[in-house]
Amino acid sequence: MKMEQWIRAIAGTGILVTLGLAQVHHPNWLWLTAFIGLNLLQSAFTRWCLAETILAKFGVKKSCE
């Protein structure tokens, strides 16, 4: 998978897991859901994503490389 696919998979999984945890365990898990959403929003404007930096260190290639 390419970088963009990994980021979408990680974000989607994080949102679904935290929503499930909020239902089963405690509603405070929704703060992590909000954090993931805010990171997605800020990356749209700043073109910087922490997940992209971490994945690059693991050797995941960008789509244009």
Report what the structure shows.
With about 60 residues, the protein is mainly α. The mean pLDDT is about 90. The protein is elongated and about 40 Å long. The protein is built from 3 helices and no strands. Helix 1 packs antiparallel against helix 2 (about 30-45) and helix 1 crosses helix 3. The protein starts with a helix and ends in an 8-residue tail after the last helix.
- Which structural class best describes the helix and strand composition? mainly alpha
Strand content: under 5%
The residue ranges in which pLDDT falls below 50 over 5 or more consecutive positions are none
DSSP strand tally:
0
For the termini, the CA-CA separation is: 13 Å
Order of helices and strands: HHH
Please tell me what the overall shape is: elongated
Number of helices: 3
Sheet of most strands: none
Radius of gyration using CA atoms only: 13 Å
Mean pLDDT: 91
Helix content: over 70%
Topology overview:
Blueprint: H1 3-24, H2 30-46, H3 50-57
Helix pairs in contact: 1-2, 1-3
List keywords for this structure.
mainly alpha
